Amino acid sequence: MANITLNRPLIWLAIVGIILHTAGALLSQDQPDRSPDRPAADIPLISKREAAETAAAFLRQRYGLTHDVETFVVYQSHKTLSGYLQKERLYETYEERFIRSFPLDYYEVEATDRITGNRYYVDVNFTVPHVVAWHQANPETANKAANQKRTAESRKLAERELSRQGYDPADFSYVRQSPVDGAYIFESRTKQIGDARLQVHIAVNGGSITLFRPEFSIPDTYVNWQDEQDDSAARMTWISLGFTLAMTLFAVYHAIKYRKTVSFRNGVLLTVIFSAIYLIHNMNMYPSYKTVYSGRSTEWDALISLFIVNMIVFLMAVSLYMSLLAGKAMWLSRGWNAWPRWDEPSFGGEVLNGMGRGYLLCLFIMGVQQLLFFIGERQFHVWSVNDPADSFFNMLAPGLFPLMAWAAAISEEALYRLFGIALFKRITGNNFVSIVIPGMIWALSHTQYPVYPVYMRFVEVTIIGIIFGYAFLRFGFITAVFAHACMDSILMGLSLTGTNRAADAAAGILYIFVPAVVAIVIAWFHRKRIRRGRSDSDSG
What we know:
The structure is a single chain. The protein is an alpha+beta fold and 540 residues long. The protein has 3 domains: 40-134, no CATH class; 138-219, no CATH class; 234-533, no CATH class. The protein is built from 17 helices and 10 strands. The strands form 2 sheets. The chain has an 8-stranded antiparallel sheet. Helix 7 crosses helix 12 (404-428), helix 11 runs antiparallel to helix 17 and helix 13 (431-444) crosses helix 14.
């Protein structure tokens, strides 16, 4: 098996990265410590099973259900409130005053009565088995409640429920009746954080409480600001998709142009690996599709979403395959073999060295990223919010998530580095410009993450894309893929340790070493193949 060749400049870059990452992490810890008896708001201390049992027990007591209900549990988060608190620097105050009674993150239990078909949604505190809100959501009840006129008797029922749930009626004033669900809205005179006041929504139908939901009313100024930010992120994403589609069409053109010099078998295996990982990931994310419609989607809604994203994966696989073919051919036309083939003697050694260089590069990039995060937080007040659609807690098997490191590394390095740099180098003739443009297109596709202000994510990923671009030009496609895969494997693996499950934490640590294992296994098989080929040649 080929030996790994050490690269001193990369070793120094890795050391710089470690220093930057360590310094940034230490400097970021100068925030006031959490109270030892107060858990972190975004780490669950009860399981989904406990949440389901809590919800079922509540429904038996509240609605007199005498039989089991079918439950499905998802993780939800009050994203808008979380963003408002962070923008106004009120997060710690909220944790001290309200987090126990009004958690930002919670379990939403969808419970279906198998006999009547009635559906209930019960919100359970993330950290203690306590119900914080509920909603009886069968369609006829919802329609009647929405059309119900305000009556003295129903409002008295709502006020009594407010008192029954431990709220002081004297502290609340009636605001209005919601035109959406017919709920009576009561607002607290004393419970306030910034300009956000606690409101309790209570819906009454047929003499029964069908909805109880406490929430803080977010000022319109912040809601409008966040909507503008989200709209900007959506526009950036669409711009990225437009350029990516154009690049894919150029890739198809160049693959056809170089059809006599390119083998169409190149890229098949990588495309299959990418597709398989992505399809597994989409299935793994099934619970998250239940959150798309604010937690009120049906099984069919989730399945339709799953079908649509799998169709998108198919299109992404086509783009990947064409980028691999065209990128390899375009660099060969320039006299550079940016991506050695399996049957070349140098392939195994290139994989091993690419893995070694990849780990060193990823340490440097992680240090740069930590520095950018630190600057963003301190100088530009950048923050992020939890997103249920991408949360570990909405995965069937969180331990499978870091496999996506390879899907991202293969597809993004193929399109934005192997082919993208070749394409823009042909257009502009300048190395820097040919690196920056596809790096910016790549960065635009990452602005949909819930990071605010959204421009910071664009700046951060563009800088990282420039580093990946120069790494590709210096060391080739295999090194770029391993650097990307190493970085994502480490970040995704370490994030698994926050699921509060020992098995996930162990899997997360193991994923850090997966790129090394993959490289060693590939190099070992390649060495055996080369030896077998030589033996066959000698015997012939």
